[in-house]
Amino acid sequence: MALFFNRTPSSTSANPDQEAGVAIVKLAKMARFTIFTALTLLAIWLIGDVLMVLFASALVAVVLNGLARMLRRHLPFIPYQLAVGLVALAILLILAALFWPSGPGIWEQFLTLKAALISQLTDLRLHLSQSSVGKTILDHVPTALGGNDRIGLGSNIGFGGLAGSLTGLLSSAFGLIATLLVILIAAFYFALSPSLYINGFLRLVPPAYRKNARMLLCTAGSTLWAWTAGQALDMLVVGLLSGIGLGLLGVPLAFALGAVAGLCNFIPYIGAFLGAVPALIIALSVSTQEVLFVAILYCVIQFCEGNIFGPLIQRRAVHMPPALAILSQTVCSSILGVPGLVLASPLTAALLAVFGKALPPLADPQTTLVETAEMRPEELAAATAKKGAAKPASKSAARAASESDGADSGKSV
Q1: Are 76 and 363 in contact (CB under 8 A)?
Q2: Where is the composition biased (Low complexity) (predicted)?
Q3: Rounded to an integer, what distance in angstroms lies between the CA atom of residue 62 and that of residue 312?
Q4: How far is the C-alpha of 188 from the C-alpha of 194, rounded, in Å?
């Protein structure tokens, strides 16, 4: 990266010893960077779950830090640590106010949603088993889901296995709650004294690079704050629209389905499909016409989110190319599972900001390779002609400047 690896001494001398020294320095830095990258990938492979918990804690700490700074802008006399404590207390009170009066009813809706999903999956399995095409699909569902055996018609077919997986996920709620508590407690302490942990990390960096490393950490933190704040508003809008729309359509468990849609929207692009699946399955219990209405509702919501609300909310955040977002989610989920899928987008946003700050700009920013790929033939020809005309003009200007300098020097002599 430009901030870290552009320390090679420039030399235009033809001295072979100097050129050999420069080449050795470059090879040493390349080898060091390769070793660092290999060790990073090995750490991700071995302790990826721990790193995901650490990154999730840092993400929540960034949110607490951003909210505390917002509070101090309005109340500057409050100490920073007190502001963090007040923000955390306010979040807990808001959650308690929202869920305490109707908490049992909300939990009952989610339990009913779980039972309804399992029931609908079982009914779908029985419906598919009545046709030859359906039997073929059922025989191959376990293989598509990663199973090892081909399941016959009379046993627990793939959709039943999927229902069992859902039950297993819900039965491991204690482990999930414990992990969330670890993340929240660590995030609270990170946010209380961020300089302590940042300085501790910078002690691992060579002194010559600490200033640049601190700048990159600040860049990643500000990017995560902007991305998370925008995504939270996006989730709120999608969740409210989904819940209200499903309620107007008469779909059961509209509140729980809206909450699922909003939470799944934390995962860009893929989350929209994940949030729609439970609503479509529940709508199937009403009628096939209801499934069509629910599908249209989710398409309209996602169209408005992608073209109206999303650009307005995320205009100050990092613009992430859709293909890069989907590829990062695929790679992280294949390596780290569900936590990797959830945290892939903020991680990619932070890395994009860091690389954008650390890497040098393009050599020719006027017409990049991507821009020329998107141009029509006549636009490309015009840009090429304009660029070719600019070079002789610059050369003639430089020649005229040198001639004027020579004339001035002659007059002075």
Answers
A1: no
A2: 381-404
A3: 22
A4: 10
Counting every residue, how long is the chain? Answer: 413
pLDDT in tens, 313-330: 665 566 677 788 888 888
What is the token pair recorded at 344?
């892939």
What pLDDT, in 10s, does the model give residues 202-250? 998 888 889 988 999 999 999 899 888 888 888 899 999 999 999 898 8
Backbone angles phi, psi at 365, to 5 degrees: -70, -15
CB atoms within 10 A of CB 353: 21
For residues 268 and 345, the answer to whether their CB atoms sit within 8 Å is: yes
361: left (phi over 0), alpha (psi -120 to 50) or beta: beta
Q: Kindly report the three-state secondary structure assignment for every residue of the chain.
A: CHHHHCCCCCCCCCCHHHHHHHHHHHHHHHHHHHHHHHHHHHHHHHHHHHHHHHHHHHHHHHHHHHHHHHHHHHCCCCCHHHHHHHHHHHHHHHHHHHHCCCHHHHHHHHHHHHHHHHHHHHHHHHHHCCCHHHHHHHHHHHHHCCCCCCCCCCCCCHHHHHHHHHHHHHHCHHHHHHHHHHHHHHHHHHHHCHHHHHHHHHCCCCHHHHHHHHHHHHHHHHHHHHHHHHHHHHHHHHHHHHHHHHHHHCCCCHHHHHHHHHHHCCCCCHHHHHHHHHHHHHHHCCCHHHHHHHHHHHHHHHHHHHHHHHHHHCCCCCCCCHHHHHHHHHHHHHHHCHHHHHHHHHHHHHHHHHHHHHCCCCCCCCCCHHHHHHCCHHHHHHHHHHHHHHHHHHHHHHHHHHHHHHHHHHHHC
- Rounded-to-integer distance, Cα 408 and Cα 413, Å: 9
User: Residue ranges of the domains in the chain?
Assistant: 102-171, 224-384
CB 287, CB 242: distance < 8 Å: no
pTM of the model: 0.67
